[in-house]
Specification:
single chain, alpha/beta, Alkaline Phosphatase, subunit A, 8-stranded mixed β-sheet, 5-stranded antiparallel β-sheet, 13 helices, about 30% helix, about 20% strand, globular, binds zinc ion
């Protein structure tokens, strides 16, 4: 009797197959090459390394920008910054774009597939004012400064509390702030890599916020100390990832969860003379980790050039959902399988937070970073590890420059700066103060943007 009942239950055909849960973890300011699986010399990431080895990881994955707001807008919309216009205005520094309600987001498409959608986010550029919340049933936002932010563990707890209230398939976005300045890891990780470095007394990490330090490059010992302190924060996040896994396993959710781990941008450690993020679009800022594990195809290491807009399509194709119209992204899994017909092998990055506008394209061999104001580009060889350390040799510059500038033109129509920024200015005092404390705003207090005519793009582009 007992067995026949069991058999009857297991043969019921009406039970719909539950689509996998999706957990998208974005770790702010995390450089790909500071993770073990990407070749880092310090053991910063045992959990994430294992997740990569058990799943699929992309060795040359790039973000659409070198700072949070435009990068996250691309991750939510599948669009490039010149399409979503969410970033810092190219000519009016206190003006930041917000996502147009007309843009269809990844979250909204998942909702149409029956997904419950929740987010726990902590970066000030993820504030509801920027509208990256579009499509989320639950959007738990808490602003951050460089000194204080909600921890990854606390964010996971809130995410699990939300998950526990859901019945169907779920999409959960978690955004962690640990590796962002000021590199003050929690005990027992603080000092793990840096404790024996005497250069500690030569630098005040609290004073590094928002500074490029191109004119005041510190000694090698100090640079190493800064990197060690940064790596300690990665350890904190890696431990949080282990916690996330255990919490999903306790809930019997892990076997049906597609976990994607990435970052919004990297961090400069004087690779090209500068520090922090938002100033350029080179590999140290745009090359990000991209690890998919759990209920996903297991492809191991993939070397093709991919970008965040491809990840958006990869997540949607995992659950059989349609792609957003207007997105240039290519299905990540087709790239991994070598079956993507229209993959151009180019990653485009645009919009910077500080200084005159730039645009950049990278393929498997080289990067072009074009500065509009100077009307000049720099060309870099991409190393086997995905970073740029040497300029392209003189005899190859013409052909390489032509190839990459033509690629940029074919993707975005031209090299000119992004004209417009969604049209919001920062008027909220609290948010303004947070952005200022993060070093993103130089002005002493909120001022309404002065309408100025953007420079004629034809003057600076060719
Ligand atoms: Zn960020």
């Amino acid at each position: 009797m007992f067995w026949s009942l069991l058999l009857a239950c297991s043969q019921t055909p009406q039970e719909p197959v539950k689509k996998p849960d999706i957990v998208l973890v974005v770790i702010d300011t995390l450089r790909a090459d500071h993770l073990g699986v990407y070749g880092h010399r310090r053991p910063t990431s045992p959990t994430m390394d294992q997740l990569a080895k058990d799943g699929t990881w992309f060795h040359r994955a790039y973000a659409q920008s070198g700072w949070t707001l435009p990068s996250m807008a691309s991750l939510m919309s599948g669009l490039y910054p010149h399409q979503h216009l969410v970033g810092r205005h190219s000519f009016r520094g206190n003006e930041f774009g917000k996502l147009s309600p007309e843009v269809v987001t990844l979250t909204e498409v998942l909702k149409t597939q029956g997904y419950a959608t929740g987010a726990v986010v902590n970066n000030t550029f993820m504030a509801p004012e920027f509208n990256l919340k579009q499509g989320f049933d639950s959007y738990d936002y808490q602003g951050a400064t460089n000194v204080e932010h909600r921890s990854a563990r606390e964010s996971i707890d809130l995410g699990m509390k939300w998950l526990d209230q859901q019945e169907g398939s779920t999409f959960l976005l978690l955004h962690f702030m640990e590796p962002h300045l000021n590199y003050e890891a929690t005990v027992p990780y603080l000092g793990k890599f840096s404790k024996d470095n005497a250069a500690a007394s030569e630098i005040n990490l609290g004073e590094l916020v928002g500074k490029s330090h191109r004119k005041t490059v510190p000694s090698r010992a100090v640079q190493e100390y800064v990197r060690q302190r940064y790596d300690e924060e990665i350890l904190v996040v890696d431990e949080a990832m282990e916690y996330l896994l255990s919490e999903l396993k306790v809930r019997s959710r892990w076997s049906n969860t597609a976990l994607a781990i990435t970052s919004d941008h990297g961090e400069e450690f004087w690779d090209h003379g500068g520090f922090e993020h938002g100033h350029t679009l080179k590999g140290e800022l745009t090359r990000i980790p991209l690890i998919l594990s759990g209920a996903v195809p297991k492809k191991g290491r993939v070397d093709d050039v991919v970008e965040h807009v491809d990840l958006v399509h990869g997540l949607l194709s995992l659950v059989g959902a349609p792609m957003m119209e207007g997105s240039s992204g290519v299905d990540l899994w087709k790239i991994a399988d070598g079956t993507a017909k229209d993959a151009d092998g180019i990653a485009l990055s645009e919009n910077i937070l500080y200084g005159p506008p730039r645009v950049s394209a990278v393929d498997k061999d080289a990067r072009l970073e074009f500065a509009f104001e100077a009307n000049a580009g720099s060309l870099w060889v991409v190393d086997p590890d995905g970073l740029e350390r040497e300029q392209v040799a003189p005899d190859l510059r013409q052909a390489t420059g032509n190839r990459l500038s033509e690629a940029i033109k074919s993707i975005r129509g031209g090299l000119q700066p992004i004209d417009g920024a969604g049209g919001v200015s920062i008027e909220d005092y609290e948010m303004f103060n947070q952005l200022q404390s993060l070093g993103y705003i130089d002005a002493p207090e909120p001022t309404p943007p002065t309408p100025t005519k953007p420079a004629d793009p034809t003057e600076s582009a060719h």
